[in-house]
Each structure stands twice: as structure tokens, then as C-alpha cells.
């Protein structure tokens, strides 16, 4: 995967990318808008580290971001199938003092500018903290459901950890464990079986 860097991208420069519903947001603070409108669409919830980008541990700067091979093409394919593409990610680096929330939001705004992701929700808390947004709790998905008109019966979550699968189960949607570097074929097969 290519190592993407863009030192000209700052949080203040991202307003032009926030057309319609594209945004990054801390789910711990509740919904961003809380007023979904329009016809229902299924959502593909994606974990971030290990699914969208290579997990080097606490990735918090654009210079450290490496796309998982095929991730952007997979996201693009999901969009052609009518899915909301929503990233849900635990980011305890904030609580650990390894990153600031503005740093995480600026990185996520950069991701939104470079892939057809509709929204990125994060939780800032530590494992064990009583936060309903932190996976395996379903809070991030539930908050997304207040911001987006989601067809839950046809939605799913793709992750690389047991906590992702538990979050999906707690939200009453299927959870898929990523098969590795390029998950496009896995997701296409799953979607085709669900719609056949």
C-alpha cells in the first residue's frame, strides 16, 4: 500500500470536503446531527486500524498512514452498491495522552478527503472505561444510526478483532472478520450472498 502524505491538509482546510454528510466525530459526545433523512440505505461499518489502514499502533499523523491494499477500491465498490460507508474506531491514544483529539480529527478529515467514506466515528476512552461508544459496546453504531438513515437489516461490520465482532453482535448486525490485506473479494462475496 502506498504511504500517503499531505502536509498541506489541516483541520481548518477540510470544510470543502464536508458536503452533505461527510464528517469525523467523537461518538462519545452523541450524534453529530441527529436528524437522518431520506430513504434507508444499508451501512458497511469498517474498523479503522487493520481494515482501512495498516495497524502500526496509535496511528495519529498522515505521515504514518498506510492504506490497506485494496481498501479504497473496496470502499468505492461498496458505494456503488448503495452502502453508507462508516468507519468506527477505538482511539484510546487520546486518553493515554499519545494523541490529541484535534490530531485524530484532522487525520480523519484527511482520510475523508482521500476515500469515499461518509463518516468516521471514534471513541477516545480506555479499555474498561464505562463508555457506551467504545467497542465492543455498540454505541458508535447506534450514534451513526441517529445521524444516518440506515437499513439495519442489510448492514454489517467488517473488523479484525473479536471486539469488532462483539460490537456487531451487540448492534444486532452481522460481523465479518477481515481475511487480511485485501478484503474486497470477501465483502463482495458476502454482499452477493445476502442479495441473491
Shape: globular
Oligomer class:
single chain
Major sheet: order of its strands?
1-4-3-2-5-6
Compute the number of helices.
Answer: 5
The proportion of residues in beta strands is: 5-15%
Helix content: 25-40%
**Intertermini distance:** 32 Å
Overall average residue pLDDT: 87
Largest sheet: 6 strands, parallel
Count the beta strands. Answer: 6
List the helices and strands in order: EEHEHEHEHEH
Q: What structural category do the secondary elements indicate?
A: alpha/beta
Report Rg: 15 Å
Task: Note the topology.
Elements (H helix, E strand, L loop, with lengths): L22 E4 L16 E4 L24 H10 L3 E7 L10 H14 L4 E5 L15 H9 L8 E4 L2 H9 L4 E3 L6 H12 L1
Parallel strand pairs: 1-4, 2-3, 2-5, 3-4, 5-6
Describe the structure.
The chain is of the alpha/beta class. It is 28% helix and 14% strand. The protein contains five helices and six strands, in the order E-E-H-E-H-E-H-E-H-E-H. Strands 1-4-3-2-5-6 form a six-stranded parallel β-sheet. The radius of gyration is 15 Å and the shape is globular.
Outline of the structure:
With 196 residues, the protein is an alpha/beta fold.
Please tag this protein with its features.
6 strands, alpha/beta, disordered N terminus, 14% strand, single chain, 196 residues, 6-stranded parallel sheet
Amino acid at each position: 500500500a502506498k504511504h500517503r502524505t499531505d502536509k498541506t491538509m489541516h483541520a481548518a482546510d477540510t470544510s470543502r470536503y464536508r458536503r452533505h454528510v461527510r464528517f469525523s466525530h467523537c461518538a462519545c459526545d452523541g450524534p453529530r446531527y441527529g436528524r437522518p433523512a431520506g430513504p434507508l440505505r444499508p451501512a458497511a461499518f469498517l474498523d479503522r486500524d487493520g481494515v482501512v489502514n495498516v495497524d502500526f499502533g496509535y496511528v495519529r499523523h498522515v505521515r504514518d498512514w498506510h492504506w490497506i491494499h485494496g481498501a479504497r477500491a473496496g470502499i468505492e465498490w461498496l458505494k456503488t452498491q448503495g452502502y453508507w460507508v462508516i468507519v468506527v474506531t477505538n482511539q484510546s491514544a487520546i486518553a493515554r495522552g499519545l494523541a490529541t483529539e484535534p490530531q485524530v480529527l484532522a487525520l480523519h478529515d484527511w482520510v475523508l478527503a482521500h476515500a469515499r467514506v461518509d463518516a468516521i466515528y471514534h471513541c477516545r476512552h480506555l479499555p474498561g472505561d464505562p463508555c457506551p461508544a467504545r467497542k465492543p459496546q455498540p454505541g458508535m453504531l447506534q450514534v451513526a444510526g441517529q445521524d444516518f438513515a440506515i437499513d439495519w437489516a442489510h448492514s454489517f461490520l467488517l473488523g479484525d478483532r473479536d471486539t469488532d465482532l462483539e460490537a456487531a453482535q451487540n448492534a444486532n448486525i452481522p460481523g465479518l472478520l477481515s481475511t487480511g490485506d485485501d478484503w474486497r473479494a470477501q465483502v463482495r462475496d458476502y454482499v452477493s450472498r445476502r442479495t441473491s
